[in-house]
Design brief:
Number of helices: 39
Helix content: 25-40%
Oligomer: single chain
Largest sheet: 9 strands, mixed
Structural class: alpha+beta
Strand content: 15-25%
Distance between the termini: 86 Å
Radius of gyration: 34 Å
Length: about 1250
């Protein structure tokens, strides 16, 4: 009877669409493989290598090779990950299954074939006892004309760990071959021991007919081994060709500098999966050029990869698992550790622990085996990690368990450590006692392969409002299954959704190529509305066309470039990514990416028929309650370590038990305890008038008003707050006094405390004003503003064997789902909402299409109720990570543990991310630019040393690094007049739009700017004195920074093809620039603050200053004063700087623009004054009069501020520049890479004192 397939065995392995035999051409030419593939050798072929080296891919390619080159039967079986932990494994079932599959394939193949092949991938995923039995069976197969190939992470160990591997040479006197990998020796089976001789031949000599000539021997020779090992590794050239081709398919050959490819190859080593993960990371960056920017953090894809590998180390024996983790830590302390040292270290863990009778120590070989290829050891040599990235991962504390292993290792090494007290014997196994180490901060699981609800076995804590039972009863009334916080299984089928039209299938998936051009008419696209590719292109082009004012602009055929690639490992199957890139700038340049993820790698997705028909609580309430229940009872990282320590000054009382139709404002200082739970609301105010709290209506609102007197946003937010069990909600317009006599000045500085201490933030994401509401009740109505339920869910596609994907079932995930559907909603165009999203412990976002959930542990939506898949989780995971860090401490005392932990960004990196996300939002009042981010800046400030000072969006330490910020897109009029009057040119607050903040790099600098004395660090002066730590520190708009550094001249040129700017330096720089920009010597990359005018470009020279520079040689001990010495190392240099414009030039060329704006402001001010005087004569004391007075005051203030700033610029431009140095304003930043030592020494001679305004 035919055996059923065990659950952890697969009969096929799919090769990635972008990998073929050419990548492993060195392997296919290998002498050992060629001999084994001939079928004439009885020994087994073992392929080994660490995680991600390509063993599984190679085994699939080998199967294809064998089928193509002979008619033998090929049986390939893959053992799934964690087979050893996947439940009971029956050895007999495995053996029977292999036997059945081999028999079937041999019957199908030609009967004349003399031998067949059995390929077993992932052999050491099985338990060791199963491996032993299975190896015996495979040995019998090898002796019966069946050739066996195994892949494994760790090779068989040969000899003792203290012995030496034998090295064999050919004994043919005419051959000098040494270090033989294949060899033959005399057959001793029929020879007496006394008559034996040692005679060996290399494989070529044996095949040429050479034999042993000893008179007592018959000349028979044998291969004295049962298997041969080949390490799966790629040479640098193969990796480089692969990376180059991958990038060129998407970006084009001319757009990828060689340095980008070299950087990825250097970091990947010889590991194909690391190369793919690095390529994934490149797609996450704003530009491929950012690949070789220095960073203080591994990419999230690499972290997720190693998180998964650590989690797969056998957890059935905790003592052994701890030993493996400690060995990983020990091996990375000095890059390696001798096997003897590691053996002694592991033995010391259980020293004096005599009661450990049932749990013996692992030998070094056992530790290496259990590490699943993460540790590497040759026989008798040192133990080290298999890849440099793993070394960084362990050293830089990305993993909680490894941090604990470090602390344990430290305790073991202490001379006074009582290691017997570290471990205790309990129920037949060793359990670690609780050591009194400083507590390590626990964070979100954002680095995992996807955001997910914890399993039932995870630790649970409860941090819910007092009326949690109310939520449970409400959920029950809505027929909710809250078992383990997951949605009802009835809603989690894999029902049909949209597919791909025949045209797209033939043009892309059946084209047998990896890139091409998609060209289809608009009418054809509309006719294929059920196809996700056609719908995507049509929607994308339609949205872009709406932005054009010229009605003549029309494109009949919407051409796109497409490319296919596979991502790094994120599941059992490879994920294939389709990238669509508009072929013309008419429709924008941002690519859209879609991931074909195996259906088996995703949690079940709701069927369209079971997806709630609206986002109203009547339909979507069960899912909301499910998320909240799981978060408050099971999410360890969503629980505050200390009780709520703050309550806002005012709250809106919405208790339905007292009066469901009435709400009132409550002054909390008189009535409520600090621990009172409350919800908050994020909403757009819009332009319409709605009820706000003022001095005039304070008494009325305190007594109570009808719920119906509130706008739709507020009414529906209160419905949600009541549903989740809240009796109070904080709404900014009702809880902060507005208008004259208001208290925004004090309450605004405390908004970070309001959101951090809230229970849940309710977000009216799709409402542009106060009337839009939260609920979207008409899915599937078919109007343009409605969203079909099927549009919410991912598409499903079943590919056939002829598809480039191979046969399989896939879910198609749009990579931009989170950013388009959620972060692209109207609410997140507001700059103020950034802090609300980052600081709230949990959020419910009501968008146009569905409800999104976000907390410190889980990011989910109705389409993915158990968690956003990894490929869609880039933006959400960063927010979860920092939300967890900000929630992990009390408001009043930010503990030191917050500044470090597993998988942590540095506070500096978080700040860079915060600045970019915040500046990408819109601000109605640009003068509020730093006010709205101050809530986040306060928290970062408390993470940094006490000597750190904040001002103008920058930090005092390593200020020179931060001054190199640049705008994300170069456009005209970025420097608004209002911003120039409020901030100096060196602050990112002086420009409008998204900003990429400068890094405070940890890399060693060989040069940096100083104060005029040549010694002190550059810094800024503060304006006035702050009375409270909650009050924002300010820098005067006229505040200048004194600098001493390299100042030079260069010519800026714009590349017509790419639109990028560059600067040439040195002699004849104008002649160099006239030939265009070229990567290499004497060319700086320039990032203008706004589009440059003709006077800024060729042939006119600009000034520049170098802020900081690094040498590429990490061992060169270089000082600033020694760099002029000709004996300095001939190395390459990289650095950052600013493009400058002297104040005299600025006054002559740029001030005219601001003087025109000043003229317009004066006219507007005078008009408002006349209108106000007329209203006074008419004695019209109404709302119109109040509004006119308000705008007159604002305009008069703006006019006076701009007038004073212009006069100040003119006065400074005429000052004597000899007193302390010339004065400049920045007009952009620059970067340079690979500058030669000769050029560096030449420009280093030109140091000057300047003032940066």
């Amino acid at each position: 009877m035919k055996a059923m397939s065990p659950h952890f065995l697969r009969m096929s392995i799919k090769s990635p669409v972008d990998i073929d035999e050419k990548l492993f051409e060195g392997f296919f030419r290998d002498e050992i493989f060629s001999s084994w593939a001939s079928g004439n050798r009885s020994w087994q072929l073992h392929l080994f290598g660490g995680p991600g080296c390509g063993k599984t891919i190679l085994s699939s390619l080998v199967a294809n090779y064998l089928r193509d080159h002979n008619s033998s039967a090929v049986t390939i079986i893959s053992i799934e990950r964690q087979a050893a932990q996947g439940g009971k494994i029956t050895t007999e079932a495995i053996l029977q299954y292999i036997q059945d599959q081999t028999f079937v394939r041999e019957r199908i193949a030609s009967s004349s074939a003399p031998h067949s092949f059995v390929l077993l991938d992932g052999f050491d995923e099985l338990p060791e006892q199963v491996q032993t039995i299975l190896q015996d069976y495979l040995s019998k197969l090898s002796s019966s004309n069946r050739r066996v190939l195994l892949t494994r992470r760790v090779p068989e160990f040969v000899g003792s760990i203290n012995g030496k591997c034998e090295v064999f040479s050919c004994d043919n006197p005419n051959c000098n071959a040494k270090d033989l990998r294949l060899f033959w020796e005399s057959d001793f089976s029929a020879t007496d021991a006394d008559d034996r001789c040692v005679f060996m031949l290399c494989n070529p000599c044996y095949e040429s007919g050479e034999r042993c000539l000893h008179p007592l021997h018959s000349g028979a020779m044998v291969e004295p081994y049962t298997y041969r090992n080949i390490e799966v590794t790629l040479d640098r050239d193969s990796i480089q060709r692969f990376v180059q081709a991958d990038l060129e398919r998407e970006y084009g050959a001319s757009n990828i500098p060689s340095k980008v490819v070299e950087t990825i190859v250097d970091k990947a080593g010889n590991n194909i999966s690391i190369a793919k993960l690095r390529l994934d990371h490149t797609r996450d960056l704003s530009s491929p050029l950012d690949t070789y920017n220095l960073s203080d953090r591994l990419p999230r894809s690499i972290i997720a990869f190693y998180d998964a590998e650590i989690s797969r180390i056998d957890a059935t024996n905790q003592t052994h698992r701890k030993q493996v983790l400690m060995a990983l830590v020990a091996a990375t302390e000095n890059d390696e550790i001798s096997s003897k040292q590691l053996e002694n270290l592991l033995r010391n863990v259980n020293t004096n622990n005599q009661q450990n009778s049932g749990d013996s120590d692992l030998a070094v070989e056992g530790v290496v085996r259990m590490s699943r290829g993460l540790l590497w050891m040759r026989a008798g040599s040192e133990v080290r990690t298999y890849h440099l990235h793993l070394c960084n991962y362990v050293q830089e504390d990305y993993n909680e368990e490894l941090m604990e292993a470090k602390r344990l290792l430290e305790a073991v090494r202490r001379p006074t450590a009582d290691t017997a007290a570290i471990w205790r014997h309990e129920n037949g196994s060793m359990v670690k006692r609780q050591l009194h180490f400083p507590p390590s901060r626990q964070i979100s699981t954002d680095s995992g392969y996807f955001s997910a609800v914890p399993s039932p076995g995870e630790i649970s804590r409860v941090n819910t409002p007092s009326d949690t039972r109310t939520l449970m009863s409400r959920a029950a009334s809505l027929s909710l299954n809250l078992n383990e916080g997951r949605i009802s299984e009835a809603l989690r089928s894999t029902g049909d959704t949209r597919s791909i039209c025949p045209f797209c299938e033939a043009a892309i998936l059946h084209s047998r190529t990896l890139n091409g051009t998609y060209d289809r008419g608009e009418q054809d696209l509309k006719a294929s509305s059920g196809c996700f590719i056609c719908s995507s292109i049509l929607e994308y082009a339609t949205v872009k066309q709406e932005g054009f004012q010229n009605p003549l602009v029309k494109c009949e055929r919407l051409k796109h470039h497409w490319s296919l690639r596979t991502t790094g490992p994120t599941g059992a199957e490879f994920t294939t990514t389709l990238t669509l890139q508009p072929a013309t700038l008419l429709f924008g340049t941002s690519p859209r990416r879609y991931h074909f993820v195996s259906a088996s790698d995703l949690d079940p997705i709701p069927d369209p028929a079971h997806l709630p028909p609206s986002t109203h609580l009547e339909h979507a309430g069960p899912q909301v309650a499910s998320w909240l229940q799981a978060c408050t009872t099971k999410h360890v990282y969503c629980v505050r370590p200390t009780p709520q320590s703050y309550i806002p000054k005012r709250l809106v009382c919405i208790s339905a038990s007292s009066s469901p139709s009435t709400i009132r404002i409550t002054l909390t200082t008189n009535n409520l305890p600090v621990i009172t739970p409350y919800a908050t609301l994020s909403h757009c105010w819009g332009t319409s008038t709605f009820l706000t709290l003022t001095r005039e209506n304070e008494a009325q609102l305190t007594c109570g008003i009808p719920l119906t007197s509130l706008t739709t946003n507020f009414q529906e937010a209160i419905q949600v707050a009541r549903f989740i069990g809240m009796q109070y909600i904080w709404i900014d317009s009702l809880c902060i006094m507005q208008g004259e006599g208001g208290d925004f000045g004090t309450e605004g500085d405390l908004m970070h405390a309001v959101y951090r201490n809230s229970y849940c933030n309710i977000v009216a994401a799709d409402s542009k004003d106060s009337t839009g509401g939260l609920f979207r009740p008409q899915r599937d109505k078919g109007s343009r503003t409605d969203c079909r339920r099927s549009d919410v869910l991912p598409s499903r596609y079943k590919s056939k064997a002829e598809s480039v994907l191979g046969e399989g079932e896939w879910k198609i995930l749009h990579e931009g789902m989170w950013s388009d559907e959620l972060l692209g909603a109207p609410i997140y165009e507001r700059g103020w909402v950034f802090q609300e999203r980052m600081l709230s412990p949990r959020l419910l976002h009501f968008t146009r299409s569905q409800i999104f959930w976000d907390c410190s542990t889980l990011s989910a939506c109705e389409a993915f109720p158990t968690g956003i898949p990894y490929h869609l989780d880039q933006h959400a995971s960063v927010d979860r990570h920092w939300r967890a860090r900000l929630q992990s401490t009390s408001l009043d005392s930010l503990t030191p543990s917050l500044s470090g932990g597993p998988n942590d960004d540095s506070p500096e990196t978080f700040w860079r991310t915060a600045v970019q996300k915040y500046t990408a939002c819109a601000l109605t009042n640009q003068l509020d630019k730093t006010v709205a981010i101050w809530s986040v800046a306060k928290l970062v400030r408390d993470l940094l040393p006490s000597s750190e000072t904040y001002g103008a969006g920058l930090w005092s330490t390593k200020l020179e690094e931060q001054l190199a910020w640049h705008v994300a897109t170069c456009e005209p009029s970025k420097r608004l007049a209002d911003l120039q009057t409020g901030w100096p040119s060196w602050s990112w607050a002086s420009v409008c739009g998204e900003v990429i903040a400068g890094e405070r790099l940890v890399h060693r600098r060989c040069y940096w700017v100083t104060r005029h004395d040549g010694v002190g660090d550059v810094g800024f002066e503060m304006e006035g004195k702050v009375e409270s730590r909650d009050e924002e520190t300010r820098v005067p708009a006229a505040g200048a920074i004194e600098m001493n550094g390299i100042v030079g001249n260069g010519v800026v040129v714009c590349d017509e093809r790419s639109g990028e700017y560059g600067m040439t330096i040195g002699e004849n720089c104008e002649a160099k620039s006239s030939s265009g920009m070229k990567e290499g010597e004497d060319v700086f990359s320039v990032y203008p603050d706004e589009s440059l005018d003709v006077a800024d470009l060729l042939p006119n020279e600009c000034r520049f200053i170098i802020l900081a520079a690094s040498t590429h040689d990490p061992y060169a001990e270089l000082q600033r004063d020694s760099l002029l010495d000709d004996s300095a190392p001939e190395d390459r240099y990289s650095g950052i700087g600013l493009v400058l414009l002297s104040l005299s030039e600025f006054a002559a060329r740029k001030l005219g623009r601001y003087e025109m704006e000043l003229k317009q402001l004066r006219e507007e001010r005078d008009h408002l004054r006349c209108e106000m005087e007329w209203l006074e004569q008419e004695q019209a004391e109404n709302a119109g009069m109040v509004e006119t007075k308000k705008w007159y005051g604002i305009t008069a203030k703006r006019t006076q501020g701009l007038s004073n700033w212009i006069e100040g610029m003119k006065n400074k431009a005429t000052q004597d520049c000899n007193e302390g140095g010339e004065r400049f304003r920045r007009i952009g930043s620059l970067q340079f890479r690979d500058l030669s030592a000769k050029t560096w020494r030449r420009i280093l001679e030109k140091r000057e004192n300047i003032w940066l305004e």
